[in-house]
Structure formats: C-alpha cells, structure tokens
Amino acid sequence: MPILSFLLFVFVSHFTPGPNNILAMAFAHKYGLKKTVRFCLGVSLGFFVLMMLCSFFHLLLTSYMPAIQSYLTFFGVLYMWYLAYKMLTSIHTDDTSEAEAKHMLLTGVLLQFINPKGVLYGLSVVGTFLIPYVHSVAGLVWFSLFLGMAGFVSSFCWSLFGSVFQKFLQRNRRGFHIAMAVLLVASSILLLI
After folding, report:
1. Within a 10 A sphere around the Cβ of 89, how many other Cβ atoms?
2. Most confidently predicted of 45-49, 60-64, 88-92, 136-140
3. Which residue has the higher pLDDT, 140 or 58?
4. Could you tell me what percent of the chain has a pLDDT over 90?
5. What's the pLDDT at 153?
6. What range defines the domain where residue 84 resides?
7. Pick from 143, 82, 161: which is nearest to 115 by CA?
8. How far is CA 118 from CA 40, 47, 73, in A?
C-alpha cells in the first residue's frame, strides 16, 4: 500500500470543511468544547461503522453506485441546506438546551450515513487503498478504526477552533452563523457539480 498517498488522502479529506467539521466548530461555539466531544465521538463511531460497511460491501455498493450516489447526494444536499437554515435562524437565539446537547453523539453517528462527502470518501479510500492491499478481516477492522479516529481528530480540531475563539465568535455571532451557513451551502453545491 502506498502509505504516504493514503495518509495524505486521509488528512486532506478529513480536515477540509464539510458537514462534520463545520458542525463541530458550530457546536463548540454554542455548547463549549466539553459538550461537543460527544459529537466528535459520534462522528468517530459513525465513521468507523461506515468504513466497515464500505469495506465488507464494497463490491455490492459499487455495482449499484450510480443509483445510491444520486440518492445520497440528493438527501445529503437537502440535509446540508436544512443545517444552513437552522444556522441562519439561530442567529438571534441563545437557546443552549441541555436536551439538544445530549443528542450530539447520535447526531454525529447518523450524520455519517447521510453525508455524501463521507460516503464517497469511504468508497474511495476502501476501493483505492484497502481492498487491493488488505486481505484480512482484522486488517479491515484496524484500518476502519484508524479512519474512525481520524474523524474524531479532525472534528475535535475544528471544535477546538470554535471553542478557543468562542468570545470572538460570540461578538461576531451574526457573521459567524452566516459564514457557516454559506460554507454548508457551498459544500452542498460542490457535491452537485
């Protein structure tokens, strides 16, 4: 396996803006870093499960990829637009309900299955780097764990950014929410192109 290419692909894919990272930063801004760790753990767990599914069902998924890809893209774009809408409508609210914060783990897990960037990344990394070189179930599990941890690290880094700059972001709340909404919509448009 070309390790350097694999690691570079993983780094770029995980640390570029996408729904996981943008929401991690927004949640850290809204709830603080400690509560956002739940979301990061959810991203990691969901990504691990997604990588396992991609690994074990790669041939099946790729044979049906054109149909699955269009549905995933459609629902993923709609969800990203919904998140952008929620981001814009929460500009003036300071509602940090504990109930909403408790569901961040589940949100992080479920987001992986409707995040087209994550699904397409999973299919790409599995098809390009894992299936041709890893021939054991244990190897696929270890690489899936590694990719899940990469999801945690990237979302945590974005959360840290949101937390460190919390006071600045609070003063510039309107601009921050508008920028995050625009980034979500831009990410969704790039998926459509």
Report:
1. 11
2. 45-49
3. 140
4. 19
5. 96
6. 19-58+77-192
7. 82
8. 14, 8, 11
Residues 6+ apart with CB under 8 A from 65: 123
Residue 146 has pLDDT above 80, yes or no: yes
Count of domains for the chain: 1
Note the pLDDT of residue 112. 87
The reply to whether 10 falls in a domain is no
Look up residue 70 and give its two tokens.
């269009």
Sign of the alpha-carbon torsion through 42, 44, 49, 50: positive
Tokens linked to 12: 């770029």
Other beta carbons within 10 Å of 100: 14
Residue 115, phi then psi, degrees to nearest 5: -90, 100
In a domain, 67, yes or no: no
How far is residue 162's CA from residue 160's CA, in Å, rounded to a whole number? 5
Total Cβ atoms within 10 A of residue 38: 19
DSSP 136: S
**pTM greater than the 0.85 cutoff:** no
Residue 36 counted as domain residue: yes
Q: Which residue, chain included where needed, has tokens 């780094």? A: 11
Mean pLDDT of the region 69-77: 66
What is residue 73's predicted lDDT score, i.e. its pLDDT? 63
Cα–Cα dist 29/156, whole Å: 12
11 domain-assigned:
no
Name the DSSP class of 94. Answer: -
What is the rounded end-to-end Cα distance, in angstroms, of the chain? Answer: 31
